[in-house]
Design goal:
Blueprint lengths: L1 E5 L10 H9 L3 E7 L9 E4 L5 E5 L8 H15 L9 H13 L3 H15 L3 H17 L4 H8 L5 E4 L8 H12 L3 E4 L18 E4 L2 H10 L7 E3 L6 H5 L5 H7 L8 E5 L9 H13 L4 H5 L1 E5 L10 H6 L4 E2 L9 H8 L3 E4 L4 H7 L4 E4 L5 H4 L3 H5 L8 E4 L2 H14 L4 H10 L10 H14 L2 H28 L20 H14 L2
Parallel strand pairs: 1-2, 1-5, 2-4, 5-6, 6-7, 7-8, 9-10, 9-12, 10-11, 12-13, 13-14
Antiparallel strand pairs: 3-4
Helix pairs in contact: 1-20, 2-3, 2-4, 2-5, 3-4, 6-7
């Protein structure tokens, strides 16, 4: 089986590297495509990766005459889509889409984009959502880019696998559109827990989608109007390595970071700066509250920060002291992160604002807490995916209403050693719905193999459709040539009823128009 895996960006491989490795072990040929601004338009470069898989960097976006129109359509639709009833509190995501609409197009289109943004912004939610539906119809009328088709034709593919697809870089949609026109089956593998709610709408429906859980299946059907019979629940392969990891010995870990192994640790799991833009000030307040706590365990605890991978450059060694931290444990890894595993493993509890690291803390059976502060309201209440983690919704994360409330709940959880039954149930339904002890990567590989066979008839259907289209175009060209030729005179058509020449459509339309004008 030949598979083209469109990753959008090379970094997205990390959530599926185990799946790709399994497919290659089974003898399948995998080529990976990574959209990149760094490469000039129409230039294709091939390089070898560490695991010898082929990586082709492909054009970042379409460049034909419809490039700007298609981009404008998608940007505007993303902005309007956040008026969906379930997303109306997602102000931060909506505002990001509005800014992208106004600034994300070529300069010569920005005036029109700003006018459209102003128009959509002035509508109520229902009207804006109606515009989103209209833009969806316009998307269907945009034909595929011929260069993407040319790229795909040379590869004789059995399947196009794509992730994250629902994203702020739109080049993948043109790859999907071209593949479907050629009859290449398209499978979308959902990338992350927030893939379907924070990055916009699904502009072009793939042939099938592999999701983590029932929650994401529901998001696809309710938010993206995608048919549920074309969705398969497979689980989250990205956590397989984390489930299998072992911690560094405590003494060794503490020595490496200047920590006293005899003192308890509390892990602070950093969020992305888009989610928590002034996290350092909050951490400082939390550190002061812990040190002032009447609970001797909390007062003596080392607060250790594991920054979000996207914010490690925002923290320096001196920031630990300024923020009241015992240590900052840096690591650029996003998955299978030994540093993250060690920080959580050696902690008695974990705290975070809104980050997937809270899921990793749940995997390790730690009490996990968040604080709903006013400065983080848009990133918490306004995020659909955040609510899935909360204990009141069946998740592992307990909510505190203030830093003082957090300290009280931390103390209670540590003293009681509360049961993790609810956490185990969440992990099974959210990450591994086919069994908590069953790795997900083999399930993904099996499903991709199954879908390549099940969707194979799409190729022959597309070939037949394209043949009919080509025939129709050829006939139209011949008809146009005859019309332009002075030596060719077409005899008037006779009507069946009268045997008289049939009136032309133009004459018929003029007669109707004149009747309407005169009122006769």
């Amino acid at each position: 089986m030949k598979i083209l895996f469109d990753l959008g960006a090379k970094s997205f491989l990390r959530n599926f590297d185990s799946v790709i490795s399994l497919l290659e072990e089974r003898g399948h040929e995998i080529e990976q495509v990574s959209s990149s601004k760094a490469y000039p338009v129409s230039q294709y470069a091939v390089e070898d990766m560490e695991n010898n898989m082929r990586l082709t960097r492909q054009v970042f976006y379409r460049t034909d005459t419809l490039a700007a129109q298609s981009l404008l359509t998608r940007l505007a639709r993303d902005f309007a889509w956040y008026s969906h009833p379930r997303l109306r509190r997602s102000d931060k995501c909506r505002e990001r889409c509005r800014k992208m609409l106004e600034k994300g197009l070529p300069v010569e289109w920005q005036e029109d984009a700003a006018a459209l943004s102003k128009l959509l912004g002035g509508l109520d939610h229902e009207s804006r959502l109606a515009c989103s539906n209209l833009l969806a119809v316009m998307e269907k009328r945009i034909p595929p880019d011929a260069r993407f088709e040319e790229f795909l034709r040379t590869r004789d593919l059995d399947l196009l696998l794509v992730t994250p697809l629902v994203f702020t870089q739109y080049g993948q949609y043109d790859m999907v559109k071209a593949a479907q026109h050629l009859g290449i089956p398209v499978v979308f593998a959902v990338y992350s827990w927030d893939n379907l709610t924070t990055k916009g709408v699904l502009h072009i429906a793939p042939d099938h989608v592999l999701v983590w859980n029932e929650v994401q299946k529901r998001e696809l059907t309710e938010l993206h109007d995608f048919p549920d019979e074309r969705v398969t629940i497979a689980g989250a392969a990205r956590f397989d390595a984390f489930f299998a990891m072992k911690p560094t010995p405590r003494e060794e870990f503490c020595a490496a970071h200047g920590l006293d192994p005899a003192r308890p640790m509390i892990a602070y799991l950093g969020s992305w700066s888009f989610v928590a833009p002034n996290e350092a000030a909050f951490i400082r307040r939390l550190s002061e509250a812990l040190k002032a706590s009447p609970d001797p365990v909390l007062a003596s605890a080392n607060l250790v920060l594991k920054p979000h991978p996207k914010t490690i450059n925002q923290w320096g060694a001196a920031d630990a002291k300024k923020s009241g931290l015992a240590a900052i444990c840096f690591s650029p890894q996003s998955n299978a992160d030994q540093m993250l595993f060690d920080v959580i493993s050696h902690s008695i509890a974990a705290v975070g604002i809104n980050t997937s690291a809270e899921i990793e803390a749940a995997i390790l059976g730690k009490p996990v807490f968040t604080v709903e502060m006013p400065e983080f309201k848009e990133s918490q209440e306004g995020s659909v995916h955040f609510r899935y983690l909360l204990r009141e919704n069946g998740g592992p994360v307990e909510t505190a209403r203030s830093i003082e409330d957090l300290c009280a709940k931390l103390g209670h959880a540590i003293a009681s050693g509360e049961s993790s039954t609810k956490t185990q149930s969440f992990l099974e339904t959210f990450l591994r719905p086919r069994g908590l002890k069953i790795p997900v990567a083999p399930i993904y590989a099996d499903e991709i193999e199954r879908l390549s066979i099940a969707l194979a008839p799409l190729k022959s259907k597309a070939a037949a459709r394209n043949a009919v289209e080509s025939c129709g175009k050829a006939q139209n060209q011949k008809a146009a040539a005859r019309k332009d030729s002075p030596s060719q005179h077409k005899k008037p058509e006779l009507t069946v009823e009268t045997g008289r020449p049939a009136p032309s459509r133009g004459g018929w339309w003029k007669k109707i128009r004149n009747n309407n004008t005169t009122g006769s």
